[in-house]
Design goal:
This protein is α/β, with parallel strands linked by helices and about 425 residues long. The protein folds into two domains: about 140 residues, Aspartate Aminotransferase, domain 1 (Alpha-Beta Complex); about 270 residues, Type I PLP-dependent aspartate aminotransferase-like (Major domain) (Aspartate Aminotransferase, domain 2). The chain is built from 15 helices and 15 strands. Strand 8, helix 10 and strand 9 form a beta-alpha-beta unit. It binds 4'-deoxy-4'-aminopyridoxal-5'-phosphate. 4'-deoxy-4'-aminopyridoxal-5'-phosphate binds next to helix 5. InterPro entries: Aminotrans_3 (IPR005814), Aminotrans_3_PPA_site (IPR049704), PyrdxlP-dep_Trfase (IPR015424), PyrdxlP-dep_Trfase_major (IPR015421), PyrdxlP-dep_Trfase_small (IPR015422). Keywords: Aminotransferase, Pyridoxal phosphate, Transferase. Pfam families: Aminotran_3.
Length: about 425
């Protein structure tokens, strides 16, 4: 066994080309405000809020102090049959922030757990309400819902699915919302509301009486910022209502101010029956997820006879005191600094700066909403993803962290980003795109 720092073999990194990374590691050693510092002492502008999560930026003493104080006061308490007041306080606060009617909060430890919780609740709800045949779960192509078996089964990314056997039985997918004719749309695209009718196809194919729920990200994030066409989510909601299907929004990425509203549901004016959140809930500073449900969903679980327990589900870290303390401090900061309104105010400038990259070589589409943006590059012939990854490396070497999803350059900066930093991010991306032309 070796403990040397120059031996990188033991750590099997997630979603990473391990050998390539370890041949040329890119390491961070500290972070403050909008910037990471690398092990070479270089500063990098954080264009991605870590992984869509550090919405309040980095190095906030107030959160660190709250977490420290919590650990010294009540470090852990199980949420099975016991509680602690702050978890109830946070649940109330989330219900207040959420779209009208999503009043009940189930805590978990990550986005993946929040999703699997939602899927299980949806199936169980139908059983409770006398419709036990409704077990089918519908996701969407190009959807990402974490890495649990439930989330992967409703997810629509082939590489996340192909090596894991048959996955959950009885899942299906509606088509994605990316239309070439919508290229270079600003915000919501005009065309494609009727793509929601693909759900009618699955209803006709399987029978509504077999379908429990449909889960979508209001804006697909991980697969390259796919903004729903105008009218699409409204139509999806209406089809769900017509057929007694529960609508689940996965707001793991879009929650907590990313679009300039608390949640995307409020931006689009469409309320789901169940909503999954994580990431920004603690500003990425502690692993936490939550599943919010409507009163209609919650009420059916009241008064279960089996040991009086209303849901046989939960995690050791549900409502973890330290996570709750981190979330409360993060939400305090967001309130006091008005970060949701700030994101909304910055969004038009962000949109202009992003779309100014249209004249760069190989750019085939640019998409945005709120403080998210994607610049899609044409792939190199026979080498999909290579151009994007090279652009990521170029940006990394030149002062900005920008994600590459295949050949799509994706950005989602902390909500504290300044006008100058938007300009810096875009000029670094421009130089990277030109360099990989
Ligand atoms: N849902 C969505 C929409 C996500 O983007 C992610 C993570 N990027 C997840 C779920 C999974 O969250 P986690 O990694 O916390 O399990």
């Amino acid at each position: 066994m070796t403990t040397a720092l120059d031996d990188l073999t033991a750590y099997w990194m997630p979603f990473t080309a391990n050998d390539r990374f370890k041949a040329a590691p890119r390491m961070f050693t500290s972070a403050k405000g909008m910037f990471y510092t690398t092990d070479e002492g270089r500063e990098l502008l954080d264009g991605t809020a870590g992984l869509w999560c550090c919405n309040i930026g980095h190095g906030r003493r107030r959160v660190a102090d709250a977490v420290h104080a919590q650990m010294m006061t009540l470090d852990y308490a199980s949420s099975f049959q016991t509680g602690h007041p702050a978890a109830f306080r946070l649940a109330n606060r989330l219900a207040d922030m959420a779209p009208e009617g999503l009043d009940h909060v189930f805590f978990s430890g990550s986005g993946s757990e929040a999703v699997d919780t939602a899927l299980k609740m949806a199936i169980a709800w139908h059983k409770k309400t006398g419709q036990g045949s409704r077990t089918r779960l519908i996701g969407r192509e190009r959807g990402f819902h974490g890495v649990g078996f439930g989330g992967v089964s409703v997810g629509g990314i082939v590489n996340n699915r192909r090596n894991y056997g048959p996955l959950l039985p009885g899942t299906d997918h509606i088509c994605h919302t990316h239309l070439v004719q919508n290229a270079f749309s600003r915000g919501q695209p005009e065309h494609g509301a009727e793509l929601a009718d693909d759900l009618e196809r699955l209803v006709a194919l399987h029978g509504a009486e077999t379908i429990a729920a449909v889960i979508v990200e209001p804006v697909a994030g991980a697969t390259g910022v796919l903004v729903p066409p105008k009218g699409y989510l409204e139509r999806l909601r209406a089809i769900c209502d017509a057929h007694g299907i529960l609508l689940i929004f996965d707001e793991v990425v879009t929650g907590f101010g990313r679009l300039g509203t608390n949640f995307a549901a409020q931006w689009f004016g469409v309320t789901p029956d169940i909503m999954c959140v994580a990431k920004g809930i603690t500003g990425g500073l502690f692993p936490m997820g939550a599943t919010l449900v409507s009163d209609k969903v919650r009420q059916a679980f009241r008064g279960d006879a089996v040991h009086g327990i209303d849901l046989f589900h939960g995690y050791t870290y549900s409502g973890h005191p330290t996570g709750v303390a981190a979330a409360e401090a993060v939400l305090d900061i967001m309130d006091q600094e008005g970060l949701v309104a700030r994101a909304a105010a910055m969004a038009p400038l962000w949109e202009d700066a992003l779309h100014a990259l249209r004249d760069c070589p190989n750019v085939v589409d640019i998409r945005n909403i709120g403080l998210t943006g994607a610049v899609e590059l044409a792939p190199r012939e026979g080498k999909p993803g290579e151009r994007g990854f090279d652009a990521h490396l170029h940006a990394f070497a030149n002062g900005a962290l920008i994600r590459a999803v295949g050949d799509i350059m994706v950005m989602s900066p902390p909500l504290i980003i300044s006008e100058e930093q938007v300009a810096q991010l875009m000029s670094t991306l421009r130089a990277a795109i030109e360099a990989v032309a």
